[in-house]
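User:
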Amino acid sequence: MTHFKCLLPTGIEFGPGKISSLSDILPGGDTLLLTDKGVAASGIVDKVAAQCQAVSGKVHQFMDIPPEPSEDQVTEVVAKLSELNVSAIVALGGGSVMDMAKLVGVMLNGGPTMQDLFDGKLPRKRDLPLVMIPTTAGTGSEATPNAIIYRPSQQLKVGIVCDAFMPDRVILDPELTTGLPAAITASTGMDALCHALECYISNKANLLSDVLAVEATRLIFKSLKKSYTNGGDLEARADMLLASFYAGICIASSGTNGVHALSYPLGGRYRIPHGVSNAVLLAPVFAANKDACISKLASIAPLCGKSMDGTNDAQKADIFVQALEELSRDLGIPAHLSELGVPAEDLDDIVEAALQVKRLLDNNPKTLTREDIRAIYTSIL
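Assistant: Predicted structure:
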């Protein structure tokens, strides 16, 4: 029997138009609304700010959250917000905005520094209520106690896991995702699929993560391509938002492994968007892992929509891995690292960097040696 621990938000609102529930959630007093310039340009912020204004003394809008922020950028944002006296934080955006909100929530008002957090000096609680409203369907940050930060000194993205990062309330409103560009729909959707599948085969997989990983995978194969080709398909957008949330819970209870371990050096050295680097690696890493999890891959293989008639488990696993590669191509995900500016002469460095992501590699169902990791990267150079 596999033991597991899983924190969850205390309240979840799901469905079209659910943004209207925000005014019932906020405690009153001043509210800090965090978002980024892309979301600000979409016109969504006004709708959310109006909900905040209905119960807040003042709404402080901060729209300059950088994409995939570095530790220095986090510190700068906290410094800019340090004079505010707010009663709640609302995060409106994708993973970068939500991760920043988690960090701001614990660092404001004399909380820990970034170095404290990297050193494992983690707060046990957060004083400010935190509401998360994802505008992408991919990171699942709204369901995890994790924050991903870029460390320039290491040229690596690093995950910080802290119970105090778990949001209080989550609003999943698919209407807020219908304007998401196709390319971002693709990369974030593939990110959610990585989360679900890695957690399904992880060494810490359990009854909770298995159930949610299977359902997330089903929803993604059903609706990701629909969302990509028709961004206004509200049912498909709803499916993807739920899938991303379910996969986030999987991260919180089981954890990612090989794909993310090899992805972090790519994002750190070349600033490749997280979802893209994961998507490029998904099929190759699962091909390398296949022999260690054939029965699990076989059990989930029918969800990809391919015929499994007359096939054994090994063949089902092969078909599933091939389906992952085909899905990436259908969504316009690059097939090779060279397309993303990764030169072949950097191979030794990125292999060594991946080997340092031990927390994730230790959760992989198969021990990936230096030679294995080199072979995976080489296969997509």
